[in-house]
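Agenda item 2: magnesium ion complex prediction
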Amino acid sequence: MTVPAPDLPARVRIHEVGARDGLQNEKTAVPTEVKAEFIHRLADAGLTTVEATSFVRPEWVPQLADAEQLFPLLGDLKGVHLPVLVPNARGLDRALALGAHRVAVFASATESFAKANLNRSLDEALAMFEPVVARAKADRAAKVHVRGYLSMCFGDPWEGAVPVHQVVRVAKSLMDMGCDELSLGDTIGVATPGHVQDLLSELNEEGVPTDRIGVHFHDTYGQALANTLAALQHGVTTVDASAGGLGGCPYAKSATGNLATEDLVWMLRGLGIDTGVDLGRLTATSVWMAEQLGRPSPSRTVRALNHQEQ
Ligand code: MG
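Presented output:
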């Protein structure tokens, strides 16, 4: 059994985003029952945080229009966190009414993406999230956990490289609002390891501790695992990934998007870092899901392991 190097964590929590971020960006809409089976299979493979869906207005994201029908089908998953995206107060109400304990808001580090995604300025978007986070945290007994997604943390298709101080400003706003955790998104996949380390160091210097930070890398330029390793060496222990590499990004130039969970687990296993994930079960789940979508998984590890079995 490999023992992790002294500069690496013993355990990493994978925040699985395939059912939300993945399916949201797939062209094919998946039936509710298939989504429910997908999430059950992900939990069965050992994933303990499985982002389930998004309570956006159905006409905005038709792929996730069935949140109300899907969430109750997951009630038997005890001990598995099932965060949901809530874009506004209405979405939060819908999620809390169904018993969601973990919610996430989706902010942007750049003006251009706030405009493209929400048709608001950066500060207007933050002002919109503030009452949502406040309401989620208001009922202390309910212990609702709030994640703040921060997209375009490294590069933006309209603005180019994003200055670290700009990301830090928005990150601090989200933490000040009461977010429990941040997820730093490399939405177009342009980050490289040095940039990752610079951002994490600057966040620490400005008072955002590493244990409140997760990373969300895209593999558009083949850098997702290198960036993940840099984040782990900095002390990050929460890593977002999408089973089978589901989901592209409509704003990136290529179809390659989310870091595949299998590719991540393969690397972490080799480093001796515990994830609790059964790679065989996870791969079988992604192969099954690829069949549902009618296209092969873009994950290198899924393809390699599946090919081996044939
Ligand atoms: Mg993503």
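Discussion summary: The longest strand covers residues 102-108.
Owner for follow-up: CH.
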